[in-house]
Each structure stands twice: as structure tokens, then as C-alpha cells.
Amino acid sequence: MSAYGLLPFRFLRFDDARTLVVNDVGESLFLANDDFARFVRHELPPDHDAYLDLKAGHFLFQGDSLAPFELLVTKYRSKKAFLDGFTSLHIFVVSLRCEHSCHYCQVSRVSADRRRYDMSEETARRALDLAFRSPAPRLKIELQGGEPLLHFERVRQIIEEAHRRAEEEERQIEFVVTTNLALIDGEMLAFFREHDVFLSTSLDGPAELHDVNRPRPGNDSHARAIAGIHLAREALGHDRVAAMMTTTRASLESPEAIVEEYARLGFDSIFLRPLSPYGFALRSVRTTGYSMREFLDFYVRALDHILALNANGAHLVESYAQLLLTRMLTPFSTGYVDLQSPAGAGIGAVVYNYDGDVYASDESRMLAEMGDTRFRLGNVHRDTYAEIFGGDTLRRIVAASVAESIPGCADCAFVPWCGADPVHHYATTGDLVPHIPTSDFHEKHFFLFKHLMSLYERDATTRRIFWAWVRREPMRSEEVA
Amino acid sequence: MRLHETARVSGIDRPLIGRVARSPLAAGRGDAWLLAENGVLPCDPHGYLGVLSLGDLPDDAPELSGIPVARGLRQLGYLDDGDVVAVDPNGFVRALYRRSSRSNFILVTEQCNSLCLMCSQPPKPIDDSGRMEEHLRLIDLIDPATEELGITGGEPTLFRDGFLALIARCRERLPDTALHVLTNGRMFFYRSFAEKLGRIAHPDLVLGIPLYSDIAARHDHIVQAAGAFEETVIGLQHLDRHGVRVEIRVVLHALSIPRLSRLATFIARNFPFACHVALMGLEMFGLVHQHLSELWIDPADYQRELGAAADILRDAGMNVSIYNHQLCVLDRRLWPLARKSISDWKNVYLPECNACGAIERCGGFFQSGTKIRSAHIRALPSMEIAAP
Amino acid sequence: MTITVDLTIYPLELVLRTCHTFTGRCFVVPRAAGHGHVAVELTPRDQDDSLRDLAGDFSNALLDCRLRALIAEETRPIRELLVAQAFCEADLLDRREVESDEHADPRGIAG
Any CB–CB contact under 8 A between A474 and chain B? Predict the structure, then answer.
């Protein structure tokens, strides 16, 4: 038997019959258990199908051909290509003011009349200066709050100035405004239309659920959101308005109803998000809290319903599954800052708070609001680009976020698809490095990767749906039942 | 349709290449062959490159004295204005380019460094590097309005600098013509060669490169060249790195069908940058007949594998076409991928095809492919075609 | 429940690593047990967790832990080279052939 060598890979006992192997660029293969045993003992004969699949799949090599290594190097670079542009997402918290009082709000909002929580013109300008220092070929500027439309003059200033600078410097730029849409009007929409702005809003589900989660004076959050969505779609185009939901205890009972609400409103994507353990959410954990297990049960039911709708011709993507599947099935990089290795905190995305403080992530900013400022990178009025983006704070965070070297992650079969979120780990355990056996972050992602892989293996229709999601296209007409 | 024949020539002491002129030209006569039909010259031939005669011309006509003439052409009656014809001193007449055709190509060399089991253009071990001059001249004469031009062989890259010169000349003289090069890509194992090609920055260049298996040993067996897989695979990477577009071509036969889905996955994972993947039916001409038992499989018998491979590639967002398959043996759901891919000069239909409701859409057969063919060829009644 | 592990089969490092992966499911206390053995006491956090399953899972996990360590050790040089080469501007490999050219053709591709 001619000797073969192993190329780097990890494995998981997937079920009673099969072992899943995943190589360092995230390509995977199922092996029958005894084929796996022979494979790792170097006993697979070269004419065996498993041997051939492992060879072509870059799990083993034989001889001295350069080809497997060259291909792996190229693919590794592709997978980590999100590093190339450095910080590309720049989040501006233009104001902490908000007229909603959402139970789970992860922003410490203040009531509508406290103007000192607004971002000043000078702060915005300096923050833009820093943003434009980034080498990223494509910049994405996201405006958040509180409710950013309460401080529309700042929104206008930032977008106008950024757009002008981008044109001068011949850089690509994209704008997103995260808003509850309750206060949107024609003038704002005209402005957004002029600057190709995307809107991202919250829709937790049908009115009964949404309004309970998201109180405001008049208790009409849902009605206003719907009205705002229609107005915005008309002014900006259907695909310029996206929505996401936050899962609360009340949501757990109604996955199908939530999905139906999105389908009814003609959304082509839904982002099923669990609660974050930050901000007001921590205080109200008894009313809105639930375990990760409960969230995952909810997620499974919701995803099943989404898949059933897709199988019947609807095009509704679950955004998180789309992200994970892109990692699992394609050689391409994905720029989702909260699930990257190294983590995207600071090096992928950065947050400029209303007062000019700069944070590695939204979670870092929340921790500061609660009194812990260890993840503050600096301030736009005081610190230079080098001090903020090259300083010790950021380096410490990044150093703790290489999943390939975290105990518990380093050997995990899913590590090429997964990532690290050191600020989240710190906020929940007090340590930048996660304790994997008890980590909710681990529980969520380990479950989802396994679940999505099982669904993928289950039937051809699900595969077609998943691939359409990954391609970001509707299914081909002949694929639909 | 024949692209060449032997004529009776006089006054030709070296190879001559020129454009066909069926009527008098105001300019460019020195590059033009005056076309005589039925013994009639359109005008006084002086000042023209020479005369091509469909049929006979009197030997002793005074107006022809001292003028290069090729007489007695019978197969090239389709020649028209702007077509380019080469005439050799030995009487060999070749139609190198036809304006009305979508299948023009430059056959760069008959040498090749592979010896594919199914090669339809068997290589000749001759040194034909002297043809470069003819190729460059041909490019100068081709109508710049030509939409597409093929560059084939043998293996065009064997000419190395000559190959690069050809591409550069096309860029210069035919900037609006899409170039499609058929090459095994092996020479691009040397990164600098890919870099040089990239630097020419041709505005519309695609290299069509075959890959027959995801397993090195199997690909090398099919192309009969050890190390070819490694060279091709690394060559593909180099080409992408230097901005040259590539298409991957797979010929379907008994050796490539068994692992076709695996090959599709291999392509999607390792060459996602390929602008197109062509899944091609076997051309029954050339070396294939020496390896028939190893290679032949009825296309009707591999529809499942073909469909699965096409699905994998399309799932991954790649452009896929199916070439050289008759619609009656192709699964209905794969029809949208089928192209009328056979070059006009070797494209035929069978008598039974006249009754077929799909004849307009179907690519038909290779001239060489009508004897050994699927056992399932049949005319499709129109009713069967209308169903989705 | 206590599982006694023979340290001549499983190095202590691997035993401790396996213990760590079980700290979500149980409380784990390893103790020296004389003559090259370690005794691992496992107390399930969930009272409904079967001790038999726990013991079986722990034993299998030890085996897989050892297998992972072997694979990681065997593939470590290539893994490190892969990452280094992916991020390095310079070439860490012997690529004299690839960086030659079509005229020298050291591989004889032209045939």
C-alpha cells in the first residue's frame, strides 16, 4: 500500500454511522465510521472511493505534487479575505434618544428630551475622518441610536459629507440607517432616496407580539412600523428595506406566526436573533429571559416553517442560516463581524458613540454604559487613528479571538466555519476567552452547524433552497414544486 | 462542408494569403483575390494579389499572364467578399476565415504536448513554428467587425512568445473581437507566462481549459501525460491571479462520467472564478476510435450523472452549458443548458431529424458522429416538446 | 462515579483535556491514584443523566481526544506552513520550478 500523508483536518462523530471530517478551509466530507478509522490509520487503499474523495477533497496527499498545497493556500486566503480591508463597517450612534421603551433594548436609551445625548457636528466630522482613514475599498456606514431619526440633522450631515468624500476619493460607500420607522416622513425618504440609503427596521412579529415587546406612547409600534415599511418601500424600492426580529420569552410560543408575518409583508429575508445579554435586557431577564436551548427549539420550528414556504415557491431567507451556510458550502469569505476568527471587533467594525468615544463593538459600548470601560479604544477628540486602531486595547481583544487557538475551539470540527466574540464572552463570564463546555455562544453555533448539516443531508429540496440562499438568488423555476 | 481543396495553380512560388473580392475593389487590391465564377473575371486582375477560380479558366488567357491563379475549385463555392484564403505553391487552397461564419478559428500549430485518448485533432510531430507569420497576416486581414475568433491547435501555447504575439496582435487589430483560446493550460504552470498573458490585457479573452477528473492520476491517464493535472490546476490558479478569464471544459465519456459529480464539486470549490463550465459530448473523430471500448458510453445512459453535475455547478452559481448533445437524448430539464455548439462546417442532421419538432433548437451532430451514436436518437413529436 | 485511567495509555494532558470538555455536563475532580493512574470523579449536573452513558461517553471521548492529538501532531507542520504561506508575501516553499519560465521549462512541459 503506497503511503499517504494527512493534510490538516478536524473531525466530529456526527451520528452512529458516520464521522464528519472538515479540512482547514472548511470543506467537509462524511465518512462511514470504519472508513474513517482506516483513513486515520493510513490504511485506506488507493482505489477505494473514500480514498479518492479524501484526496480530491484535500484531506490526504500522496506523492510530491504541489497542487494540493497551492490550492489550499489560495482557499485559505479566500476564507480570511475579510481581513483585507481592515475596518469596513463604521457604526455611528447619532443619539441615545428614543421614543420607544423596548424591554430588551441593548442601548441605554434616555427619554426623548435629553439633547445632551446627541452626537455633535464636530464629533461626527472627526469620526468620519477616522472612518475614511480605513484602507477598506468598500465602506459601510451604519447610523444607529436610540432612534436616529430623532436627530435627523446629524444623519443628514454624516451621509452628505461621507458621500461627498467618497466621490472625491473614488471609494465605494454604502449607508444603512437602523430605525423603528415610527417617525419617518417624506422629506427623510427623499433624502434617503437621493443617497441610496438602506433602511433596517425591527419587526418582532404580529401586532400582539410586537407591541408587547416594543412599547411606545400610543402603543402603536407595529402599526407605525408597517406604515413606515410601506412608505419606505415606495420611496426607496422594495429591496431597500430589511427587517429583523428579536426573540423574547413571548416570541418562543409563536415561531410560525412570526414567520408568517414576514411572509405576509413580502420580506425576502428574516433574521431570527436571540436576546443579547446587555443593556436593559439584563435587567428584565426574568420577563424576557430564556435559555439557549429554548431559543434553539424556537429557531428549529421557525426554520422548518421558512423551509416549507420556500419549498412552495416563496423566497424568504433566514439571514443567520444564510451566513452559516455560506461558510459551510462555499470557499468565500463572509464579513459578519460577530462570528469571525479573528473576531471583527475593531478590525472589521467599529462604533463611534454620540460622545466621541470609540468602541470595538456595540457590546463594548454597552459594557461602558454599565460602568465597564475596558473595551473603549479611545475618543475621536483626543486620540489618533494609530492610537485607536493600533493600541493595546484592540490588540488584546484580537489576540484573544483567534478561535483556532482557543481551547475547546482549536479541536472543534466546526472551527473553520465559526468564530469568536471575546467581548460577549467577557460580558457573560468575565473572561475574554470562552469556557466552551458552558458557553451559550458554543451551544448555539455547535447546534446550528450540526442542524443545518443534517437538514442539508436530509433531502434534495432543502439542498436546493440552501444553495439558492447562498447564491443570493431565488430558486430556479424548474426547482420549485 | 470543406474548408480546403487542391487546385491547379500557376504563378505562385510562395504561400499567398488574401481576402476574397467578388467585385472590383477601389482600395486594398494588393491584399485581395479576385474571384472568378463560371470562367468570368469580374474585372482586369492586375493589381490584385491573384485570381481564384470556381471552376475552370482558360490557361492561356492573356490577362492572366504573370498573375497568381488557382483554378478548378469545386468545394469552396461558398466563398464571399472578405473571406480570407491561403494558396500554397503546391496547389493547396485553404479557406482560413469566412465572414458569414460564427466558427472562425486560427489553428496555431499541429503540435501538442498531450495526447488525449479522445483527441479529435491528433497532433503531428512536425516543427510548424513557421506558421506564425501566416497567422499574424491572417489577423491583419480579418474583418474587425468579426464578433468571435477561436485560437486552437494542437496546443497553441507551445509557441510561447509566438502565442503571446498572436494575442497581442489580436488586441491591436481586432479589439472588438472576442477571443476564445483552446489550450490545456499546462504551460501556465510557469507563473511568469500567465503574468505576461495578463499584461497584454486583451479586452475579451477566455481560455477554454479541459479538466477531466478530480483525481490527478485519472486526468493524466485521459490526457496521456504524467504531471498534466498538477500543471493544469496550478496553471488555472496563475491565470486567475493575473486576471485572465478561464472556462473549464469536460468531455463526457466512460472515463469521466463515473466521478463527474465529484469533479463538479472540485471545480466549484477550487476554481469558482471560472467564467463558464462546458460539459461536452464526445466527438467521434480522431484518436477516439483507437480507444472506443474504454471511452464509449451512450449519452442516454449518463443523464443522471450529467444532471447531478450540472446541479452542483449551478448551485454554486457557475455558468454551465451542455455542448454536442442531441435534445432527444438529453433529459428535458437540461434542455435550457444545451447550446448549438457544433461548428457550422462540421454540423449535420440525420434524415429522421426532419420530422423532429425540436430541430430548430437542437445542435445536431458532428459530421463524424452519425455512425457511432446513441441508440436512442429519435424525432420528437411536437406534443412531447411543449411540456415544460 | 469514578473512572480510573491508566496514564501509560493516556498522557495526563489528554486526560485533563477530556475532563475539561465534560465540565458542562458534570463536575469533574481528577485525583492521583497511585502506580501511574488517575481517578476521575464525575458528578452529573443533571440528575437524569445516566451514569452508564456518562462513563461510556467519557471513555470514548478519551479515545477521540488521543486521536485528535495524534492527527494534530502529524499535520502540525503542514498546518503552520499553510497559514504562514497564506499570509506571507514571500515564498516559504521551494517554488523554483513554478517561478522558472516557459523558455527554461525545467519540467519539460513542452514535451
Answer: no
Half-sphere exposure of A439 (CA within 13 A, CB side): 26
Cell 431565488, residue located: A474
* Contact map slice: B 174-213 vs A, CB within 8 A: none
Taking an 8 Å cut-off on Cβ atoms, the answer to whether C71 and A40 are in contact is: yes
Give the C-alpha separation, A102 to A100, whole Å. Answer: 6
Asked if B118 and B251 touch (Cβ cutoff 8 Å), the reply is yes
Residue with cell 440633522: A153
Pairing of strands B16-21, B8-10: unpaired
Query: Looking at this protein, which amino acid is placed at residue A478?
Result: E
Q: Do C103 and B186 touch (CB under 8 A)?
A: no
C19, burial (CB in 10 Å: exposed 0-12, middle 13-18, buried 19+): buried
Of the candidates B264, B230, B235, the residue with the CA atom closest to the CA atom of residue B250: B264
Q: How far is C72 from chain A (nearest CA, A)?
A: 7
Does the beta carbon of A9 lie under 8 angstroms from any beta carbon of chain C?
Answer: yes
Interval B286-332: pLDDT, tens: 999 999 999 999 999 999 999 999 999 999 999 999 999 999 999 99
Give me the interface pTM, i.e. the ipTM. Answer: 0.93
Could you give the angle at which helices B191-200 and B161-173 cross, rounded to 10 degrees?
10
SS3 label, residue A140: strand
| Contact in structure between A182 and A99 (CB atoms under 8 Å) | yes
This prediction's pTM: 0.93
| Chain mean position to CA B172 | 22
A90's enclosing H/E stretch is strand A89-93
CA distance A96 to A117: 6
CA distance A469 to A316: 9
Place of cell 444623519: A155
DSSP C77: H
The 10 Å Cβ neighbour count of residue B366 is 20
Q: How far apart are CA B147 and CA B67, in angstroms?
A: 34
CA distance B204 to B245: 9
